[in-house]
Amino acid sequence: MGDHDTPMICRFQDGDRQCIQRAIVHYEYCIRHILLDETAPYKRCQGITKSNSDEDTSVRCTNPIHINRPENLCSTHLILLGRRTRRN
Ligand SMILES: [Zn+2]
Ligand SMILES: [Zn+2]
């Protein structure tokens, strides 16, 4: 009873740490880790995230984007770059 609505938990593990995010429906990873599944219809954001440390290092954004989207930037980067367009 009720098996169908048991939430799937992301299977990502980093050492002892298990991700506790809910997995995307039909996949084994959550939205943060979905890029680990090569069969999932997501691509990686091409944006750069500045790290908060003193070192001048830039880190590639790891946000996933659904492949149906024409942009190669996540919504955060689209807003940052002022390229977000509304279609409603
Ligand atoms: Zn996860
Ligand atoms: Zn991004």
Automatic annotation (TrEMBL):
InterPro entries: Znf_KANL2-like (IPR025927)
One cellular component term from this protein's GO annotations in UniProt: nucleus
Subcellular location field: Nucleus
Keyword terms: Nucleus
Residue ranges constituting the KANL2-like probable zinc-finger domain according to the UniProt record: 11-77
Main subcellular location: nucleus
A Pfam family recorded for this sequence: zf-C3HC3H_KANSL2
Protein name: KANL2-like probable zinc-finger domain-containing protein
Species: Steinernema hermaphroditum
